[in-house]
Description:
This protein is an alpha+beta fold.
Amino acid sequence: MTAKLEFERVSKRFGNRMVADDISFTVDQGEFFVILGPSGEGKSTLLRMIAGIEPVDAGTIRIDGRDVTDLAPHLRNVAMVFQNYALYPNMTVYQNIAFPLKMKFFSREEIEPKVRDVAKTLGITEILDRRVHQISGGQQQRVALARAIVRSPSIFLLDEPLSNLDARVRFGARAELKKIQRDLGQTFLFVTHDQKEAESLSDRTGVLHLGRFEQIGAFHEIYERPLSRWVGDFVGDFPMNFLPEASGDGELGFRTEWIEVGDGPYSAVVEVAERQGDVVSLLCRGPAGRRVFMTALQRPAVGETVHFRLRQSLHFAADGRLMDGGSLPSPPGPLSRGVP
Length: 340
Ligand code: ADP
């Protein structure tokens, strides 16, 4: 696979806030790459730098091997889909999708088949004559995608495009978006703070924190083997649990599902017990007063002591980095994928 997008030592700051700190990574042709991080970490700024609407302070951005760092946005051939879709409310769906082609001076005859074609792919042919304010959030999301697809961009940049959908339709919308990306075979860069989206959509996820990728990899790798305490804590329905090492050197990190409740060397006092489907989620106060999330089949009483053992655990050094042969990419070399 060829690298479609390359960041080489890119930096960006707003005042004294470093939002990109010497970032190098590549995204492959046809890859679905998710940039995951809490809000305010600089995810949108990364996308805007790729689109050319935010200048970089230092470093190089390449698309298809071409240096685009100082190129005007309309010469980069990237399409951006925003959280609020940025559709034109007074235009019809058809006019919205046709708009970027009109701006490129395509003729009516050229535009029509392109719009109809993409509308068919996204299942929105029936609503082409409706105005944007007359259609649902899910349909607006498809129209925004259609408007991006019709331009045949080299890269799609998607900034939290699913977060305005309500929870019930989001599940279906994720599957649909993944299918669209597969069918197109195009490179997608997708920004989100929602790890469910990273898990279900990404080929690889990059976890952004303090202007750097703390970790880049398949989502399950990041979940199972976070390279830092911060990633372990951030990624997961439950944060990773941490207990001080008996030796006093660093910490043991473990996921909820690595705990066997029943007996074992550890004990914790139940503070909250909540049934969720077949299991009971427990928030407990464990050794050294540490918070431990676990699940059990039976609901224990609040205040009850539960005993547990660990089937698996990771060791983190005092500075929060994974030991066990793992290490953080610091700093990633030029063009490295950020994976040690
Ligand atoms: P995210 O997408 O992860 O929520 P953003 O890229 O939107 O984060 O913003 C990262 C940080 O940079 C935030 O603290 C934000 O307030 C700041 N920021 C973003 N754009 C600007 C700007 N044009 N001027 C000054 N600060 C900005």
